[in-house]
Specification:
Strand order of the largest sheet of chain A: 5-6-7-3-8-9
Largest sheet of chain C: 2 strands, antiparallel
CATH architecture of the largest domain in chain A: 3-Layer(aba) Sandwich
CATH class of the largest domain in chain A: Alpha Beta
Largest interface: A-C, 32 and 32 residues
Structural class of chain C: mainly alpha
Mean pLDDT of chain C: 82
CATH superfamily of the largest domain in chain A: P-loop containing nucleotide triphosphate hydrolases
Chains: A alpha/beta (292), B mainly alpha (133), C mainly alpha (565)
Number of domains of chain A: 2
Helix content of chain A: 25-40%
Distance between the termini of chain C: 53 Å
Low-confidence stretches of chain C: 45-53
Low-confidence stretches of chain A: 288-292
Number of strands of chain C: 2
Structural class of chain A: alpha/beta
Oligomer: heterotrimer
CATH topology of the largest domain in chain A: Rossmann fold
Number of domains of chain C: 2
Strand content of chain C: under 5%
Order of helices and strands of chain C: HHHEEHHHHHHHHHHHHHHHHHH
Number of helices of chain A: 9
Strand order of the largest sheet of chain C: 1-2
Mean pLDDT of chain A: 86
Number of helices of chain C: 21
Shape of chain A: elongated
Radius of gyration of chain C: 27 Å
Radius of gyration of chain A: 22 Å
Chain lengths: 292, 133, 565
């Protein structure tokens, strides 16, 4: 159980002067749903492309199922199902041709399951992909990523720009995948609500750096959202040792912190509750900015 | 039984699920001897991680509310009914309190805020962090 | 214009900002050349009486020539004003400008106006400062109209991708001819090419280019519609007619072979078929025996001539996309890079074979049904004269030349795989330049050869014998280095694959060597030179034809592209 499906150590990648990934290390345990969050341009897609072997590790190492995905793409990719934000599907194929094409690549492809998914998604066998809507393309991409029951399902912003029905189809696929013993899901999203629903591990990227990584429960137990009331008006944000972010105005300030903090003199706690992932995300992504 | 979870609130999903199952028993939406959906079915219906459902079921079992029978699923235990009676009593107290509050002409929102502030200050009083304040 | 609205200034600033480096470079080149020519001419022209031929004056002129080419390329790069539009997947008029608060007329007219103005200015500077010559009104107008047409071609035909280079070549050729038209003896020209009429032509061309461009951009801006990619959609419809896949594939390689065939392989046979039906067929029907030989040569050359540009497009990871990187749909499939290259090579082979099957079928039909075979008697006589009356050498020659032609066609399709698959746009574009210059060479030959046949033939007779030993030496060096590089480039590739391809290469090369020897048997009577050396040259060339070293590089360059090494 504890063995990791994806192991990344000290991965860095630069695009010109910009560090897209900066010394990222993470392990994705087998059987987990691993959610990757971060603002746009934080390096989520770059990280996923590295896992797929579409980018070679500049420094550091990546092992997927214990294998370097660049050195041996066939053995890695045959166990991976991948769906990206804009699935790059061959427009000229018909749905059935697409399914046959995919089937040829994956020995574990289950034609019955694929057919069941196709019916469930309401995709016409003989329609060309060119005439499918965006949601239908996403569904077809999902079918292609799922029908060989991959050991690792990789989803790169799968649901951005899609309607709620397709989004729930995608989440259902995630759950179905992980319900089957030993299968792992790694997906990135900036819809925190989705991540919070289905993942048990999360990692957060901020400007190419891994700022948060671990089991979701632990992280949520660790972070708290406290509201302090000061006796006097505060014109600038009060310096609270141990706080990730401090926001507010006047006498009331809301603090996101990852440990128990001592309220500074002249203030008392009026509210203390578990921070939601949204609080943590905005706290880290926004807080680092405002304090820097 | 309709369950509705809100991932955006800070409360962990498994706790929300436990609350909702309890609530469903209290309101009589599920009764003793009835079966809850399997972990996988529940996870797919609610679109949450199966581990979360499993954890909620485990906690519910430890509290004696449900009984996990291997292979056949989760059943509501008899003991729950006793609890449900207490809850019915408690509900009448809440009702009378609300009747009295109605005299002050408070809005629903104001009443909810009052209750939540009271609950949260009690929670803060119980938590060890209080001693720093 | 009165006062230019501020929003137009914003567009001008965008154009400047995008091209500032190139503009500075262009100005730099122009200033440098002007200074050079203003400072030098007196002192240099002093030494002009040097009788030995090449002197400083010539050197300056050569330099001038290169600089003007550089300036011309820079100018064309700037005034093209195209961008990659991710949404359409093609390079064309920048779609991001569509959201600017400008009318489509302004969007088109402003860059065109700037382009024309810059061209005229540049032309003026080059003519007066550097060449000290003056161009007439006609030339000045031609320059302006050429810029308009150039931009119109780039903007209105995004679906053609790099094929637009070919159109530019043809258009440039037409304009160069047009430049000389007024100085032609007027009475030899038809009435619609006389001087007075030319201006009307020019006006019509410029206006239709501009209005076409305007309406196209306006249409694109309001969502495009059916007309936007009509060329591509016609080809897509044509390919949709291809039988749908009704059965499962036996293997991943088979599935990908089908993918590549549908994506790029059918292109060459389709073009060959279209040429046969649309051009050669009607020509052959109208032929009374006089043109039979010429049509036969055209039919036989056509697959190879077409394979040349098609091969360039074929060598890219995706024939239709102007994006040079491996499509992620293919890149994430569990198929090795070696297999991807092998599939490409197989598809190319089938593509070449089907094309030649079409050609053979056409020739069989043509000869059997409506050809007037009298025209071929000359060939038959020639063959008799060379090979004697026995039919066997003739059969051998026909079979060998068909095999050689098929191999050549295949070779054109695969020889630049290592460049195209690398995803290196600069490298690919540089190697594409000869393709756009090809029409100019064709034109040069077309102008030079008529009237000069005798002198060229006599040069061949005199010159070839003396150049031959050098050619043999060069070919020998080329063969040696080819084999050395091949040994190096195939070092990392699976042994089994190396053995397979080596076997195929040897078979193909043997066919070509046999063809070389058979044709030598005839050629030695025609080409007056040392026949042993001629034989060596032909055999060495046969060894060079089928790519070996380059194909060994292809998997490596595809892997670099796929994994962004």
């Amino acid at each position: 159980m504890p063995e990791s499906v994806v192991a990344i150590t000290n991965l860095s990648r630069r695009f010109g002067a910009k560090a897209a990934l900066n010394d990222v290390s993470l392990d994705v345990p087998r059987g987990s749903v691993f959610g990757l969050v971060g603002e746009n341009g934080a390096g989520k897609s770059t990280l996923i492309k590295h896992i797929l072997g579409l980018w070679r590790a500049e420094t550091g190492a990546i092992r997927v199922f214990g294998v370097d995905p660049v050195a041996d793409p066939v053995s890695v990719l045959s166990r991976v199902g991948y769906l990206s934000e804009q699935p790059d599907l061959p427009e000229w194929m018909t749905v059935i041709e697409f399914m046959r094409y995919m089937q040829a690549f994956y020995p574990k492809w289950d034609p019955l399951y694929a057919e069941e998914l196709r019916r469930q998604f309401g995709l016409d066998r003989d329609k060309r992909i060119r005439v499918l809507s965006k949601g239908q393309r996403a569904k077809l991409g999902l079918l292609g990523a799922q029908a060989h029951r991959p050991d690792l399902l990789l989803l790169d912003e799968p649901s951005s720009g899609l309607d709620p029905i397709v989004r729930s189809d995608i989440l259902a696929a995630v759950i179905r995948t992980v319900s089957e013993e030993g299968r792992t899901v790694f997906f990135s999203s900036h819809l925190l609500e989705e991540i919070e629903r289905v993942s048990d591990h999360i990692a957060m990227l901020h400007q190419g750096k891994l700022v948060l990584c671990g089991p979701l429960d632990e992280i949520k137990a660790q972070y708290r959202r406290m509201t302090l009331r000061f006796e006097t008006q505060q014109s600038t944000a009060p310096a609270v040792p141990g706080a990730v972010s401090v926001r507010g105005a006047g006498r009331e300030w809301t603090i996101i912190c990852n440990q128990a903090i001592k309220p500074i003199d002249g203030s008392h706690v009026i509210d203390d509750q578990a921070a939601s992932l949204n609080d943590i995300f905005i706290g880290i992504a926004g807080g680092v900015h405002s304090l820097a | 039984m309709v369950l509705r979870l809100n991932p955006a609130s800070g409360v962990p999903l498994y706790l929300q699920l436990i609350e909702q199952v309890k609530h469903a028993i209290e309101t009589g939406a599920i009764e003793t001897g009835e079966q809850l959906p399997s972990v996988r079915k529940m996870a797919e219906d609610l679109l949450i991680n199966p581990n979360t459902v499993a954890r909620a079921y485990r906690d519910l079992e430890q509290e004696g509310i449900i009984e996990l029978k291997h292979g056949s699923g989760a059943f509501i235990t008899d003991s729950v009914t006793a609890r449900a009676k207490i809850m019915t009593k408690a509900q009448t107290i809440v009702q009378s309190a609300l009747d009295r509050l109605a005299l002050f002409d408070l809005t629903e929102e104001e009443i909810r805020r009052l209750v939540e502030t009271e609950l949260s200050s009690r929670r803060a009083a119980k938590s060890p962090r209080k001693k720093y304040a | 214009m009165g006062c230019i609205p501020l929003r137009n200034l914003a567009l001008i600033r965008d154009i400047w900002w995008r091209h500032r480096t190139l503009v500075c470079l262009l100005i730099g080149v122009t200033v440098f050349t002007s200074l050079l020519n203003v400072a030098l001419p007196e002192s240099v022209s002093m030494s002009a009486d040097n009788p030995s031929g090449f002197d400083a004056r010539d050197a300056v002129e050569l330099l001038n020539f290169h600089l003007i080419i550089a300036a011309l390329l820079l100018f064309l790069a700037i005034c093209g004003y195209t961008e990659f539009n991710a949404q359409k997947g093609s390079i064309g008029f920048p779609h991001r400008l569509f959201t600017l608060p400008l009318s489509s007329f302004e969007l088109v007219a402003l860059p065109m106006f700037l382009g024309v103005a810059a061209a005229e200015l540049l032309g003026l500077v080059w003519r007066t400062l550097i060449f000290g010559a003056n161009l007439n009104v006609w030339g000045t107008m031609l320059i302006g109209v050429y810029v308009v047409v150039y931009q119109a071609v780039l903007w209105t035909l995004p679906a053609l991708g790099s094929l637009r280079m070919l159109i530019h070549g043809v258009v440039g050729m037409v304009f160069i001819i047009a430049l000389g038209l007024p100085s032609f003896p007027q009475e030899t020209l038809p009435w619609w090419l006389r001087e007075g009429f030319l201006m009307v032509w020019l006006l019509v061309v410029a206006l239709s280019a501009f209005f076409g461009c305007w309406s196209f951009v306006a249409q694109q801006r309001s969502g495009g519609g059916l007309r936007r990619d009509w060329i591509r959609s016609v080809v897509e419809r044509a390919s949709d007619v291809a039988p749908r896949r009704r059965k499962d594939f036996n293997s991943a390689a088979a599935a990908h072979f089908w993918f590549e065939w549908r994506r790029s392989g059918f292109m060459l046979p389709l073009l060959v078929g279209a040429m046969l039906v649309a051009v050669i067929g009607p020509l052959s029907l109208g032929d009374d025996g006089g043109g039979t030989v010429r049509i036969l040569i055209a039919v036989l050359a056509m697959p190879m001539v077409l394979a040349f540009p098609v091969g360039k497009a074929f060598s890219k990871p995706d024939l239709w996309s102007s994006d040079m990187s491996v499509p992620s749909f293919v890149a994430v499939r569990p198929i090795s890079t070696d297999d991807l290259v092998e599939t490409k090579m197989k598809v190319a082979a089938v593509s070449a074979a089907v094309s030649w099957l079409l050609v053979c079928a056409f020739i069989a039909l043509w000869f059997g049904l409506w050809a007037s075979l009298d025209g071929l008697n000359m060939i038959r006589l020639l063959l008799w004269a060379v090979y004697g009356h026995s039919m066997y050498p003739q059969y051998a020659l026909v079979i060998l030349s068909l095999a050689a032609a098929m191999l050549m066609t295949w070779r054109f399709l695969v020889s630049s795989l290592w460049l195209g698959l690398s995803g290196n746009r600069a490298l690919f574009a540089t190697t594409a330049i000869p393709y756009s210059l090809a029409p100019i060479f064709v034109l040069a030959f077309a102008i030079l050869i008529p009237g000069n046949e005798d002198s060229i033939l006599s040069w061949m007779y005199r010159g070839f014998g003396s150049v031959l030993p050098t050619l043999v030496r060069i070919a020998a060096i080329a063969v040696t280095s080819k084999l050395w590089i091949a040994a190096w480039s195939w070092r990392d590739i699976n042994r089994v694959r190396v053995r397979q391809y080596l076997f195929l290469w040897i078979c193909g090369t043997l066919v070509l060597v046999a063809f070389a020897l058979v044709s030598w048997a005839g050629l030695r009577y025609i080409v007056p030179s040392d026949s042993d050396q001629l034989r060596s040259l032909l055999v060495l060339c046969a060894l060079l034809v089928i790519p070996f070293a380059r194909l060994g590089l292809a998997p490596g360059s595809l892997a670099r592209n796929r994994h962004r090494l």
